[in-house]
Here is the input.
Amino acid sequence: MVSMTKFLRGGVAADAPKIAVLPFQDTSGARNEQYLSDGIAEDILDTLSRIHALKTAPRTATWHYRDPEIDVGKVAQRRGLDAVVTGSAHRTLDGGLDLKVELHGRGGKLLWGEHYERPMEDVFAIQNAIARHVAKAMGVDLNTAHGQPLRKPLTSSPEAYEYYLRGLDGARSFSHVAVGLAQDMFAIATETDDQFALAFARIADCSTHLYQNGDSSDAQLERALDASARAVELDPDDSQIQMSRGQALLLAARTDEGIAALERANELDPDSFGAHYHLARAYFARGDMDRAKAMYEGAMAIHPDDYQSPMLMALVFESQGDKQGANATRRKALELANQQMRRHPDDVRALYMGANALVALGETEEGLSWARRARTIAPEEPLVLYNLACIHALAHDPTVAIGLLERAVDQGYTDSGWMAKDDDLAILHESPRFKSLVERATKT
Here is the structure.
């Protein structure tokens, strides 16, 4: 008999249990180990995401729930979750790990809990044990579940893992200084353990970010390529590593190779929001709008609370002449951006993408007000300048738009493929200054 079970991306059943991992509490005496509790929680989420009989909410969908007194039952109900993982972590006096983990159902009922006091080198075994306990509590038999096996240890060195977690903490902020320091932490992790594949991938991610946002030097590009190649050499079957490699290759204008790596990332983890999102952007830059649309749709299905994918999907609709579809998508994205800013008022990306949507929808004055707020927060960030140029172009102010675009390229904006295809800049496309900028960004 042919099974009639409905499946989602990658063979995940539509009725599979959906769970989320909230940020773990830092229970150290000095409250200075948030990097440790956050990093372990993120790694537990990654381990759970490899059980394809479960659906896991992306980290960004629930990472703002940091209040230790939060009603997890209400969170589960509000987010459409079947269960929520919470916990706490800190270092013991002898350098070990004190970790408490609980699994709560939609009504807040405790489904499972455990307290681990173990040496730090056992952290990966603990993460696998937690994932197995969670799966069992959710009725998933790991002996028959399809998909990737549980995660293997990232490193054999507790010291390297410590530096890796410190790097993750810095990389989350996305400021130039923090990302640079994060890259240093990842580098020390690889020096401590030269087999630490994911740390090499994170070095590449930092270089990619820095190259795209101000430091467009040959050294950063080469570091992104070298580190991502080393990561793939060490672990070619990790989705995150293939994603890092794909982004580095796209940065080097090796488009076909970059897309192939991102496609491989998507094959390895069909529920990866990042793989769908970055593939969509790559297809858009290449002019393959049908595939870009499919990938954005996949990203929105995986992470329905993310405002970025629908914002960018609107550009696909615009390119296909579907103004009604573009505006409907922008309305949805604007609602999500507003939700994000209620949680994080200084989210500059939500501000400038929301500003773009408002201007495109004809609400120009409010859109320009949002744009000014974004410029106040990050006045010289290349990506902010680029997006402000798009906003002013949509507002039919080409003089300001081209000036902002020139400033963005001066500050290190290099994504010429995206710039050339961006319909938000249509008012500039025939301008000699614009064509010169595209050429200059390509060579930067």
